[in-house]
Give the backbone structure.
Amino acid sequence: MQTVGEIMTKELVMVKPEDSVAKVAKLMERTKIGGLPVVEGGRLVGIITSRDIRRCHPNRLIADAMTKEVVTVPPTCSLWEAKELLERHGIERLVVVDGDCPVGVVTKSLLYAEIGKHIDALTGLHKAEFIHRKALELLQDGKEIAVIFLDLDNFGAVDKKLGHVVGDEILCRVAKIWGDIVEEGFDYLSRYAGDEFAVVTVKPLEEARELALRMVNAISEEKWPLGVKVSASAGVAGGRRASARQGDFESYTLSDLINMASLASTRAKKQGRQVVVAGEIELREAGCI
Amino acid sequence: MSSKTGSYLRGPEPLRKAEMTIRLSEFEIPPMQDALLVGKKAPIGPEAVRRMVDALSPEQYEIIRVEHQVFEAAVLKRSLLKLLPAEKLLPILLEECERVADEQAVVKAQVNIVIQVNRAVDL
């Protein structure tokens, strides 16, 4: 999972508590920075923002104008956790600290731009890259995962018959329906490519199969515009690392798992079944992948 | 217009002098008296006051941050607080000062406390 340490601004402009508001206001204007960490003896003691500056008399000390409760993150914090913190606190920037010492700043615009690279503009879902990173993170945490690969049936024909605008509307609705079914903190949904979607889940294989079935059924039961019939096929792959298995562990990679789920979904489509489970496989320790 | 004509318009050079008045008086230490109330938008804040008080009159004043619509802190002389505790003195000071000051002000107050005691003893 990408971390704030990888994208943060490392060239910090910092001020001292004994600086005046007038001096810092000029500094902010010159540097075009709307929030500066306040540091005393190398330690972070506050943050001064342009909003704080506007509220205070220019003669005041920064110590009397700054916000003392600073929301900080370590460089190892993921972009998604950082985004959640920014939104929860309604702030524009996070100070990245190593212990008490500020080492960088990550702004909302920088964070959103970076996260935007991993968000599908049409559906608002994460892109495939996110699923790969999330799955790897889960494996590194020693969790077992299962992958559900979902493919809309004969969707190319819908595009050809009704046009891409209707096709895009359907894709958005599919994303919404499936987004409502998956469980936050357990299942991670993404638009994998075109009319293909993928879910990485920490649920056991049988529960993953049930989830896949619910997702496929939800699409079949939905009333679609212009009377179009939309259906999906799903493949599920997962396994237990703990169970004994002989053979070449190198081949059991995360990509294999996604590939197996994808092939299972193709098999489901060919066999006219809703869900096909690829079978249990073992995953190597994440560090070896 | 010729330069000669221009010189007719200018008057004689004015005489410039500087007058100086000096008023000498003793700098009051500390510069505040018994109490100081700091407005929320005053030119100095509680931290600046704390640094000033610590430098000029160490250990003689107490800084109390207050939740108030006009003021954000009060600086009270510790000797006063021996006569009247802060929880009695502060509400009165805040009530009186908010009548005459706004958020931009720093109000200096001189407080005289007279304690009256009547005691009776059996003869």
